[in-house]
UniProtKB/TrEMBL annotation:
Biological process annotations from GO: SCF-dependent proteasomal ubiquitin-dependent protein catabolic process
GO CC field: SCF ubiquitin ligase complex
Protein name listed in UniProt: FXL18 protein
PANTHER family xrefs: F-BOX AND LEUCINE-RICH REPEAT PROTEIN 18, F-BOX/TPR REPEAT PROTEIN POF3
Signal sequence, renumbered to the chain: none
Family matches, as InterPro entries: F-box-like_dom_sf, F-box_dom, FBXL18_F-box, FBXL18_LRR, LRR_dom_sf
Residues covered by the F-box domain: 19-66
Protein origin, superkingdom: Eukaryota
A Pfam family hit: LRR_FBXL18
Amino acid sequence: PPPLSQEIVSGESEEESNGVNLMEFSDEILLHILSYVPCTDLVLNVRRTCRKLATLCLDKSLTHTVLLQKDYKVNKDKVKQLMRDIGKEIYQLNMAGCYWLPSSTIDHVTRCKNLVKLNLSGCHVTSLRLSKMLSTLQHLRSLAIDVNPGFDASQLSSECKATLSRVSELKQTLYTPSYGVVPCCTSLEKLLLYFEILDRSREGFMLSGQLMVGESNVPHYQNLRVFYARLAPGYVNQEVVRLYLAVLSDRTPENLHAFLISAPGSFAETGATKNLLDSMARNVRLDALQLPKAWINGSGLLQHLKFNNPFYFSFSRCTLSGGHLIQRVINGGKDLKSLTSLNLSGCVHCLAPESLFRKAEDDIDSSILESLVVSCCNLRHLNLSAAHHHSPESIGNHLCQLLSRLKHLLSLALPVCSITDVAANVEKPPTASNLVPQTFGRKVRIGIQTYPRNLADQANQKIESSVFWALMASLRFLETLEIIGSSFSSAMPRNEPAIRNSLPPCVRAQSVGDSEVAAISQLTYLQSLTLAQLPNILTGSGLISIGLQCQHLRTLSLANLGMMGKVVYMSALVDMLKHCKCLRDLRLEQPYFCAGAQFFQALSHCSSLQRLCIVSRSGTLQSDAVMSFMANCLEVIMCHMFMGESLTVCKNLQQSIVRSFQADRPALNVVIFPLLHEDLTEVIRDVPMRHLDEITLFKSRVAEEPPNLWW
């Protein structure tokens, strides 16, 4: 496509012929238009088109904050020129995830003398480079960096430490056991820690959670208001985070109002952590809380913690019962209008009065959900996934009917079995399709109901009393929706071999299929959609409706839809993709998926696509089709395919893509590898964290973190 500067000039001439000149608009309107243009394009291209734009493009409202974090076309030379032209005007600079830029690029940040906020997460920065850069940034108050193997705090100069002493917000991603720069930050108010330390080195040696010699400096937490720690799987991450917490257990900051620890699996409570929690219960009032499940399960902690105006709670994977949730958190129906984000993912008993004698598949207590909805009426983000939330048969008490009262919802995650229409499920005997085993075994030939592809016909065919259809109609401003099977697990977990067998879907979910997917098309403003383990997908016709109606869709993730032995929705997916002009991220996880010419020709219509990930056991691909797709879709910078092809086929295709397109796409990241190969985990560890966390690994992302945790 032509540069934006050419588009503006050509657009100007066309408008002049129609009696309208873009340059006659007020400066305020033009500045608003220009705010949607990447800063590199503004400074390096657009401002050279005419005098008026030359002035406007350097307006403080456009140069104050520079966002490069997803500007995949930026390279070292562009960054150098940008810093040279407007470095002194930049107060906030976000280069998060710019993994393709060489470490020497960071040297040019020293021109930004007035920087207040700087995000370098995912960038290559050595101790010496960090020291040199920070020594010149005397106004810096917010910093995000990675701490990689080889980091040496003793290489930080006194000028650098002086800058760090004034930093009040620090985000640190650790790939090696270390305190990083935390001990130097004596004025910390917000500390975000991401632990990504592997248990084994590349050479296979077991790593220790003990900090290196010279790393025993004590962090300064006395002014801390926000403490957040997210741990990747592994015991080393747990060992290191305990060292960070040890200081907190000695003296809890008086102003602490957000305490959040996200830890997968088992993270046992110790004497030190118990002392910390007891101190928090006595001395602080919290606005945001997330704790490992072992710290909450079976304890009376929630009864003693005090809350001020809470805006975020996460009880993910806890055995918290609905009775305890209402009594201890909501305080028997207390007004919690301040709560905007709630994560109950994996809380299998959170909508039941007690958990002692209850089975996970038993019906929920609608009165508990109703109390939650009434008390937390301003919720914007709600996650109820990874649990069986089965509604009772009583009229008006269905989960979907109660959730429809939450008019402010922007993101929602639900298990598949929670959206089924109870009356229809009870009255109708199991259909032939419901009796088909969801396995990789021999295919069973069954009669397939014909579903119309016309949206109007679908709406007429669908009973208006469907509770899920009504829920979608009531949440017109929803931007993110996840419908995930309660027993779904991805074939590609984090630090272990690919899962070879999947659990069958919940019995209540057996009727969820095409008509429910079609109901989602009512969400006009939908930007992100995840559908996983919907067993009754017969044709995928609802996907076409979404493609036609949801024109703002940017992220799409589909996994294990319909019968597992065949991709029954391929034809509908192909039709859908032809309408997804705004789609940027596509993730597909389906056994026996054929990534051939038909699929890639349809995908080529997605002109905005940037990232593609396909995970398919026994899946196949056509190398020529992939190469043609990459040549046609110029914005694609990530191609991850984990299929059933041989290692030779995968390596040859990966090398061909890199050789053909790397020069023009500096951010290009290609991983094509056999899904069931024993070295998969070694390959995964080299994937940039941005892609790994945002698309390659499957997970529920609704209410995963507090809103606006970092910029």
